[in-house]
Design a protein that fits this description.
2 domains, Aspartate Aminotransferase, domain 1, PyrdxlP-dep_Trfase_small, DegT/StrS_aminotransferase, about 220 residues, aminotransferase, PyrdxlP-dep_Trfase, four-stranded parallel beta sheet, 6 strands, transaminase activity, Aspartate Aminotransferase, domain 2
Length: about 220
């Protein structure tokens, strides 16, 4: 899409650092420079004010990635595109079948109502819950990682959705301030909401998480 739009050498393309490196790689393959903007902490997608702050005369496009099944707030981003004459592209996740999406939403609603001590996801319009991502409060990564280990020890599968931001990776290392991205990398944890989970499975997830109170101090 970038090449078809004429984006190439000398151009800059605004992309998120929170998530998959493939978007930055695609920009580089087109010959352009990926420029990283911060995310909205509720949606985990590009924050419009951060995007606008990164713009220069060389900016040609913005690539918005919808994250975890939660669509980005596209209105402000399209507004930036219109004001500055920029191409605004969307990277969508694979579609979840309707029946499975309904079951995921049902399980997500159950977790929203039962979990204590962790910050549950923002519902948002059209959230398909491809991943159910919570925040583990505390002093950063040690708390989230200790929490994840303890939950797994109780028989609940969970995963860290983004292990490192793209702007820290060797090929794309940048000295930029992305506080919401950094915070999300340190605090987020994906809990299971697959359609195959039984009521007992869901109760086990809640029991394992609530027993920990949402916060574990890092080991000394």
């Amino acid at each position: 899409m970038l090449r078809a739009a004429g984006v190439g050498v000398g151009d800059e393309v605004v992309v998120p650092s929170f998530g998959n490196v493939e978007v930055a790689e695609a920009v580089a393959l087109a010959g352009a420079l990926p420029v990283f903007a911060d995310i909205d902490p509720a949606t985990y997608c590009l924050d419009a004010s951060s995007v606008e702050a990164t713009l220069t005369e060389r900016t040609a496009a913005v690539v918005v990635v919808h994250r975890f099944g939660r669509p980005a707030e596209m209105g402000p981003l399209h507004g930036i595109g219109r004001r500055h004459g920029l191409l605004v592209l969307e990277e969508r996740e694979s579609e979840v079948p309707y029946d499975e999406m309904a079951q995921r939403r049902q399980r997500a609603a159950y977790l929203d109502g039962k979990l204590r001590g962790v910050r549950t996801p923002d519902w948002g319009q059209g959230h398909s819950y491809q991943q159910y991502v919570v925040r583990v409060p505390g002093n950063g990564r040690p708390d989230r990682d200790a929490f994840a280990r303890a939950v797994r020890a109780r028989g609940v599968e969970c995963r860290v959705p983004v292990k490192a931001p793209v702007h820290r990776m060797p090929h794309f290392r940048r000295c930029v301030s992305l506080p919401e991205t950094e915070r999300a990398v340190d605090e987020t944890l994906a809990l299971p909401v697959e359609a195959a989970l039984t009521k007992r499975d869901m109760q086990r997830i809640v029991s394992a998480c609530n027993a920990l109170g949402g916060l574990l101090q890092p080991a000394l």
